Amino acid sequence: MKRFHISISVGDYAAAVAEYSARLGCEPCVTKQGRYALWRTELLNFSISHKAEQPAGMVRHIGFEDNAESGFREEKDGVGIIWEYFSAEAQAKEIEDKIPDAVTVVQPKPIKASGAEVIFRFLETSDVGAFRALRLRGLKEEPSAFLECYEDALERPADAYLSYFNNGRIAGAFVDNALVGMVALFPMRGAKLRHKATIGGVYVAPEARGRGIARRLMIMVNHEAQEMGLEQLQLSTNTLNRVTITLYESLGFARSGREPHILKLADGSYVDDITMVKFLKPGS
What is the pTM of this model? Predict the structure, then answer.
């Protein structure tokens, strides 16, 4: 396997990781929080580096990952660009020597569900029926995960769900043309609030879980928010959703507050809510 290698410098590390994960369709396989990240695709070996002395957007070096190489070597071409040649094993050792506390992540296999490929795209108004059906399923099967109750949502006609499309963008995951996962992005309105957006309606059908679908959908809306020029994302989740909280924190969200007893369930028990925020621009 031979991959083209390119390394660039970035200014905002977290924003760059989110953007390139979305663009490349996978997460980095090696990371050092705030400093370094490496992606491998079928054809590309791509890394980013954040250092105060490096201007953002600068090409640091290019070259090839090639397992025919016996080690790690570099050379400078006629215009001053550094070319690196290395095997995957040699690059791993180089990273370990220079960034000993970098975290290596096992790359997930291509996402599959029920033996079929998962297709990711933003929903259109023609998907409103599928959106309503999946939301109703989530409300019914996991009532503690939503503020809205199933009975109230069931009474609303399908056309009423168009308001979700009119007020935001909804990322969806499809298997065999069936919607199995979704995440909604709702930009706020008003001069003092339009720098922010709320993420909500996060749900993946049980049979499609464990394949990284929710993470991919979150990366999609994160990238969309950056394309819109937004500065801040916020969301909330109840304290029972420990797996979801871990996912959000891994994507750069930080806890910003807690609301006790936000839900009272049918059995009389209460559920607290955690609010989380992510800043997309330095100083925002």
Answer: 0.61
